[in-house]
Specification:
three-stranded antiparallel β-sheet, 3 helices, 3 strands, DNA-binding protein
């Protein structure tokens, strides 16, 4: 199923300009029918899930403590 940029923006509660920017940058694949860009909903859902997964992995990475280096010796 295909949706317009405006419909997609409403579904995911994101500004329409941001969705259009993603389309123009090629982050979201779309089809241009001569009047408007149409977005495949399954493809967009997959893209959105991948973004959420990346955000989650970054949060894990940020919260992982740095291990002590066993090669560092106290100078005193």
């Amino acid at each position: 199923m295909y949706k317009s940029v405006a419909e997609t923006a409403l579904d995911i509660n994101m500004p329409e300009a941001q969705v259009m920017r993603y389309v123009l940058e090629g982050r979201i694949h779309s089809v241009h029918d001569g009047e408007q860009f149409l977005i495949n909903t399954q493809q967009f859902d997959r893209y959105f899930e991948e973004l959420e997964q990346i955000k989650h992995e970054i949060d894990i990475w940020k919260n992982t403590p740095i291990p002590e280096d066993i090669d560092i010796k106290d100078e005193d």
